[in-house]
Amino acid sequence: MRDKKTRMSIDVSEKEHKKIKMHVAKLGMSIRKFVTDCIQEKIFQKTDKQKSDDL
């Protein structure tokens, strides 16, 4: 079974959008994939840090 998707939106300036768009183009990925990867990375970093702090 596939996870149900929910749409999110954020406001960025045109300048920020252009920078992000150019950066992800160099990486060969979409903005959606880039943002999703960044969020997942941040979540796992916090989760891993919390686990190590609990030791």
Automatic annotation (TrEMBL):
Family matches, as Gene3D superfamilies: Antitoxin ParD
Keywords: Plasmid, Toxin-antitoxin system
Pfam families cross-referenced by the UniProt entry: ParD
Coiled coil start-end: none
Keyword Lyase: no
Protein name (record): Mobilization protein
